[in-house]
Amino acid sequence: MKRFITYLIVIAATIYTAVIYGSTSFLMLFYVELVLPVFLLLTLISTVRQMRIYMELPVPVTEQGQKTPVLLHVSTGGFPVGGKVAVLIKGKLPMGQKTEKTWFYTQLAGRRKTAKIKAEYDARCVGNIRMEIGKVWCYDFLGLVALPLPAGCWKALEPETLLVLPRISEVPVLVSRQSRDFAGESEEYSKERGGDDPSEVFQIRNYQPGDKLRSIHWKLSAKTEEMMVREQSLPLGCPVDFYLDLYQVTPHHRKDETRRDSYLQILVSISHSMVVEGCRHYVIWFDSQRNDICRYRIENEDNIFEMLFQLGQLSVYHDPKDLQELYRQKYHETPAITYLELTTELMLKKNGETEARYSGEVSDIERQLGAKELVV
């Protein structure tokens, strides 16, 4: 807009000079200045009709506070020398937070038909951020005329997902003997020792005094002429169910955006600390978009990052859910030893009782997490 106003001033100055001094040259220059924007507009229309653009995230995972590269590939059909492209990238944040908007710019010089906008996205917010192109504006080489790129040139593209990892803090976790010996029901079995699950065989070995007769593999014993025993497997159940209660009474205030970051930091820190202590657990949440209860099994550090991808946009809901009842209705399994629940008010409950309350200050969460031992 500033350039266009400046151009109008130049046109006015040209015609003023032509009239005052009776200059034919300035009068011709005035006509050229009037026709030039029309010419630029026609050229720009031709270019916009042939333009295509798509976005790429070379590294889809980053840490909070870091900058991640974003590549925007632009192909044109004869863009004027020095033309500029402006691209608006919208980042949709989880838990009902506002959408972040960032403009990226590039110059297309010479006869180049393609260009890459190499920019950096400031990953300030934690969680899965769905990034997509919101608007594209094309400018002529003087910056006088601008046209929007039709939405059809990018709307068909799938949004890119950037996972911004929260800071992991140490939480003192004590795993009880009952939780360590918990078998429960599971499709995962121990590879180190046997158990009493008849649906899976751990190993076949020689008979030892004290083995039950029903565990003898009679057919194999007859072949080998030695007493062989079929040792059953030990299912690796999860002694801890970690519920994410995303119920929120009122819509989230924009000024309280750090609460989402704190929420995910608390979740990841507690989950990671339980993994370090060898405590398997399920992270359970209600997906309001699918209207279904979901869970993810956590056994190692990689599972935590995979779980963050599974959480997706993690939408809050405004009608309370009985997560434990919904979970029991879907999964008919042996009850866990410990039930943890993290609310949107940053309150951690254990077996229905308040275990800890955390403030929304991200800078103080680490201290709060390490202040009290969690026994599961």
Structure description:
This protein has 8 helices and 19 strands. The chain has about 375 residues and is α+β, with helices and mostly antiparallel strands. Strands 2, 4, 5, 7, 8 and 9 form a 6-stranded mixed beta sheet that branches. Strand 13 (about 240-245), helix 5 and strand 14 form a beta-alpha-beta unit.
Quick summary of this structure?
The protein is α+β, with helices and mostly antiparallel strands and 376 residues long.
Calculate the terminal CA-CA distance, rounded to whole Å: 63 Å
Q: What's the rounded overall pLDDT mean?
A: 79
Order of helices and strands: HHEEEEEEEEEEHEHEEHEEHHEEEHE
Helix content: 25-40%
Overall structural class, as computed from helix and strand content, comes to: alpha+beta
User: What characterizes the major β-sheet?
Assistant: 6 strands, mixed
How much of the residues is beta strand, in percent?
Answer: 35-45%
**Rg for CA atoms:** 32 Å
Q: How many beta-strand segments?
A: 19
Global morphology:
elongated
Uncertain residue ranges: 189-199
What is the overall number of helices? 8
